[in-house]
Every structure is written in C-alpha cells, then in structure tokens.
Design goal:
mainly beta, about 120 residues, two-stranded parallel ribbon
C-alpha cells in the first residue's frame, strides 16, 4: 500500500453484519468475499421442494474477468498523517460486503442472489 495514513476513529458502532460480510479495523492487502444466496418464499404453510444451487444457472454462470485498473498519474499530498473521525454509525453490511476502517490494496467480491416466489395461484 502506498501513501499510507492512520485511520483514527474515536467510536464506531454497527447494527448488523450478515451473509459473508465483514467489519475490519486495520489494514488489509486482499479481500475476496463470496456469497451465494437462494431465497425461496412460498405462500403455503410448508416448503415442499428442495432446490440446489447447481439447479439454477445464475450460480453456475462464468463471470467476465474484471477489467484492468486504469493508471492515472497523480500526486498526493497528505497534510496530516492520519484521518480523524469522531463517530461512525453503520446500519448494516450484507451479502459479501465490507466495512473497513483502514487501508486496502485489492477487493475481489462476488455476490449471487436468486429470489424465488411461489404463489398459491400458480400451484
């Protein structure tokens, strides 16, 4: 990591972290979160079928490779050696998300979600 600065946070509070997400305090070189979520909502009282991730194309499709980063010549001047924040309030992070206080070099995240609604009129 180049041009490092210290993150100075007096207080941080977070309500919810779910489904493969994280709260990180500190520096990180590489973060590689993954989440596969299958949400089935059925109007009847009991769910009657089992659905596997492999049965749905969204979970098997190959993703296109990420585009290479764009290099831009810049000059960065830090007037202070730290970033100072009094309070941070975060409601939630979900589905391969990251809340980070610190520096990071590279993030490669992937989240796949399929929501199926089975209505009584369709059965």
């Amino acid at each position: 990591m180049t041009n490092k600065r210290t993150a100075d946070v007096h207080q941080a509070d977070m309500t919810t972290i779910t489904i493969g997400s994280g709260l990180l305090i500190g520096d990180l070189v590489h973060y590689h979160p993954r989440a596969k979520v299958l949400a089935v909502q059925e109007e009847t009282r009991t769910f009657q079928e089992f659905i596997d991730f492999e049965d749905l194309p969204i979970f098997n499709a190959q993703l296109s490779p990420p585009k290479p980063p764009i290099n831009i010549d810049t000059t960065i001047i830090h007037h202070h050696s730290s970033i100072r924040v009094q309070n941070v309030h975060i409601k939630s992070a979900s589905t391969a998300g990251l809340v980070q206080i610190g520096g990071i070099d590279y993030v490669d995240g992937e989240s796949r979600l399929k929501h199926i609604r089975i209505l009584e009129s369709e059965q």
